Each structure stands twice: as C-alpha cells, then as structure tokens.
Amino acid sequence: MKDSKWWILCYDVRDPARLRKCARLVEGYGVRIQYSVFRCWMSKRVMARLRWELSELLTEEDSFFTIPLCSNCHGGIQELGCKNTPEWQKEPERFEIV
Q1: Which residues contact residue 36 at a Cβ distance below 8 angstroms, ignoring those fewer than 6 apart?
Q2: Which residue has the higher pLDDT, 98 or 43?
C-alpha cells in the first residue's frame, strides 16, 4: 500500500450502544492509543470505506474526526507515559499469510 499513511481517528459518540459499535469497527482498522483515539495505517481508499461504514452507524449528534499525518508530522510525535504503545514507524510490519 504505497499511498498509505498514518491517520489519527477520534470520536465522541453520545449513545452507549453506538459507541460500542463504533469502537469495535475502528478497532478493526487500527490501534487504540486512548479511549476514543486510534492510530491507523491506511490508504485513502480504506479511509473512504471506513467513513462510509461510520456514516451508516453514527448520527448528527455524534462527532468523528480523521486527521492524516504526513511523514514529517508522525516523525515529530513525542509520547510520555505510553509504555504499552508501539513506536510510530514509517510503515508497520507486513505479514504474509501462506
């Protein structure tokens, strides 16, 4: 996925049932770094698919933000007290299913 990059996703979902569904959906795309904040390695096409799935789930009272990170931006991220969070790399490891 040569056009992929890091994205920060964050949300505020008002209804507990929608909140759980939203969290489960986004967990399939990335790694949780805080309760309602995720980091995801995605292409624009995958991001468009996620946004479509969320549009079917969320309502107008909910908020969902997608923030793309360029290579300079994610290179400058500093973390404090995040022992369980993996480091930000240029690109995550790829696995091949044989």
Answers
A1: 10, 11, 12, 13, 23
A2: 43
